[in-house]
Amino acid sequence: MTSRIMGTGSYLPELAVTNDDLAKIMDTSDEWISSRTGIRQRRLVKDETTAFMASEASKIAIKEAGIRAEEIDLIIVGTITGDYVTPSTACEVQAAIGAINAAAFDVNAACTGFMTALHTAYAYMAAGIYTTALVIGAETLSKIMDWDDRSTCVLFGDGAGAAIVKKDETGLISLVQGSDGEKGLNLCCKNRGNHHPFIEGDLHTYYTEMNGQEVYKFAVTKVPQCIMEVLEQGNVTAEEVKYFILHQANMRIIQSVAKRLKVSEDKFPISLDTCGNVSAASIPILLDKVNKEGLLKRGDKLVLAGFGGGLTWGATVIEW
Ligand code: ACO
User: Fold this and answer.
1) Residue pLDDT, tens place only, 206-251
2) Ligand 1 probe mutation, 151, 255, 283, 285, most atoms within 8 A of CB
3) Would you say the CB of residue 307 lies under 6 angstroms from ligand 1?
4) Is 0.85 surpassed by the pTM of this model?
5) 27 with 109, same domain?
6) Domain span including residue 220
7) For site-directed labelling of 283, which of 55, 80, 207, 275 has its Cα 20 to 30 A away?
8) Atom 3 of ligand 1 has which residue's CA nearest to it?
9) Considering its fold, how many domains does the chain have in total?
10) Residues 107, 247: one domain?
11) Which of 133, 168, 203 is the last residue in one of the domains?
């Protein structure tokens, strides 16, 4: 017995902001952003919250899976931009969709958040603890961007993606994940500082900071490495894989991974051109896009691979 993805869903905010829109408010250009990243527009929230977007994506996934919310016994959300420190986004989603029988919690693995949530769900199911999981990646990254820092704010967007995972005869084939905390500050967003009446408090609000070149080097080395590892572990060849659903950070990273794996770029579907980098939400949004376009059929083999803040990475081979 393993676990299979039975339904997917996604939600993107209505507000679409193009590179040209950004060039009107900061010193940047469509040429700079699109040639270095492949990003042409991103969606940004107006009044949507992380939990709202996660819940909307979940309702679509639940419907597609043909289950009732009461059947879900586990909800895990990968996010670094929950609406509250507590309750978790997963608990907010539970209330919004009426999944009254679920245990719910969030995981923080930045852009690897959906993969970590998915792997955690797989592990619970393999242990025989739960049978029907709702796994979500949801982010409102626009609220942790310094909109005066053109080197980071142009890269990211907001949105959510979800998947229903159920115990089944086929599905998960293999998975790997890892982290390198020593390199963590290459991509970081500091939390609130210490603050109480007995010290001089730190009331500064911090935003996302990134050493782009270090993150690039990390990604183009670690991602092909972990994909090769997960393929070998699953006894699956790259040729047998229909699609590689990668975290959508940067077109150049995706092209480099394709080259290192000696796989055609056609096997790497893209959503970053229209959504930007949506961190934990990017893999489930892209998976839902490919699914809704009717490109997947039962038995297809897929690789999902995420990488990002922590630094963290994770990849899985699944049978659709
Ligand atoms: N518009 C115009 N110019 C800009 C912008 C911008 N938005 N941002 C930076 N620049 C300028 C810089 O000021 C710098 O100018 P200078 O030479 O006069 O000082 C110049 O462009 C080059 O800046 P770099 O930061 O060196 O740009 P680089 O060529 O490294 O490209 C990029 C930046 C695209 C982020 C690259 O480092 C990269 O691909 N990194 C990979 C990491 C990544 O994609 N991170 C995304 C999130 S992380 C994740 O999801 C895992």
Assistant:
1) 999 999 999 999 999 999 999 999 999 999 999 999 999 999 999 9
2) 151
3) yes
4) yes
5) yes
6) 174-319
7) 207
8) 28
9) 2
10) no
11) 168
